[in-house]
Known about the structure:
Blueprint: H1 3-21, E1 33-39, E2 42-48, H2 59-62, E3 63-64, E4 67-68, H3 70-84, H4 90-95, E5 104-109, E6 112-117, H5 121-134, E7 146-147, E8 168-171, H6 189-192, H7 198-201, H8 206-214, E9 217-219, E10 230-233, H9 243-251
Antiparallel strand pairs: 1-2, 3-4, 5-6, 7-8, 8-10, 9-10
Helix pairs in contact: 5-8
Amino acid sequence: MNANARTRVHLLVAAALALLAIGPLGIGGGPVAEAKEGARGKVKQVECRPQSPQKFLKRRTFVRKGMLDPKKHAKAVRYLAEHYGHVETEETRRYNPESAFSQATTVRFMGLPLSIHERVAPLLTCVEKRIRATCTRKKRYTPQAVGGFRTANSYRGAEISNHLFGIAIDIDPERNPCCGCVDPWPTSPLCQEKKRTAYERTALTRCWIQAFERYGFDWLGHDDLEDTMHFEFLGDPDRIDGRNKTKNKKKK
């Protein structure tokens, strides 16, 4: 790598880490896993239910070849606002008077502090437990930086980032690039290398990706953006706790 390439990488990493640093002050089937998480000063115990991301919430459902489908996007935004809170826009305020950011909580994920929406927070413990149980030997990965909540939109135009709702997580941007994002990513040496799949471009192991996906997170490495650092919870927040199913049966 020549001097100019190294300089671009350093600038790119600095910018990406600055985004990760923005926190609260800067701005299926199968067995369940137990999680304990603090939210608004309370300890919440959850048995995380495996589930899949909801298709209509996936970015590639309403953004194709760079074109945003306003109707499909509006449907997704309404759902997220109703379930997580508004993101300081007139549209989302109509669906929920409480802001998403007012429901932020700070947790530790793989030893690192992370600002996330309190409804999603218990899942991080379940994901970490899954990673530690299944990602062994060559499948291991040690993160150096993570980022969650933001108060500034990182998308251009009308599209709203799920970081604003507090349901998105970025992991090590210097090792897991977003080659379809805005400059300087496209010109980064990390994105210039010819790779067959996003799995080959990211430093994250498949085991890590599968641990997130088990609990309703969508990996944007599957998206046209190839945003390999990014995971977002697109499952049903009302189905996070596996004990709800048992309670509902008792009511019947």
